Amino acid sequence: MQARRQKIFRSLTRLEDLRALIVDYEDLDSECFDIICRNFKKLVRLELRQVTKLTDEDGAKLCLLKDLSELHFQKAVGFTDRAFEKGLGSSAMKSLVMADSPLTDRALMSIAAHHARLKSLNIQGCKNITDAGLALLLEREPLLESLQLYSCISLTDEFLRALENLCPRLRYLQIWACRISTEAKEFFERRRPKVRTRPSYA
Fold it and tell me: What is the DSSP letter of 108?
């Protein structure tokens, strides 16, 4: 099966102008991922829905995609902070979705260093990031308009207090399955009334 999939990816390399690619199967291997990063240099959007077999060495190749402005990856259990050290594509990246990865605040600092023009950020199931780390990232993201956080269980009310003075263009905030109190949510809504929040998040 893997050999067949590698053959398919190699056959796609003739599509030099490919702009968007969605990969939705669980056993994407390093060879297929290498084909993507080394051949589809004009990719603008890349969505990897299940990347359980990829490692930091694979993630580091994302820096080869210099036009990449939208990146979504899920179930990235093999991506740690090292995968982010050289950036994840274009320095002008606009949308980033990261799900189920053991990344820490160090990875957030790498994102801040390489991608300071994000408009949309979605972090899911990343249980090691902290209030301070996420706040430091958002200090570098003045263009951010949408922020979604799911099951980031180390985040607390302190994060919302910090967010009050960050991201002046923020217009949408969704937080759920985090340790954010109703009181902190209501206080934030009073301080930032122009930010649309989900009616109920906890």
Answer: H
| Residue at token pair 């979604």 | 148
CB 23 within 8 A of CB 47: yes
pLDDT in tens, the chain (202 residues): 667 777 777 887 788 789 999 998 777 889 989 999 999 999 999 999 888 999 999 999 999 999 999 999 999 899 999 999 999 999 999 999 999 999 999 999 999 999 999 999 999 999 999 999 999 999 999 999 999 999 999 999 999 999 999 999 999 999 999 999 999 999 999 999 999 987 544 4
pTM: 0.93
Work out the burial of residue 183: count CB atoms within 10 Å of its CB; fewer than 13 is exposed, 13-18 middle, 19 or more buried: exposed
Pairing of strands 70-73, 95-99: parallel
The continuous run of DSSP H or E covering 201 comes out as none
Q: Could you give the domains of the chain?
A: 2-197 (3.80.10.10)
3-state helix, strand and coil shares in percent for the chain, rounded to the nearest 5: 35, 15, 50
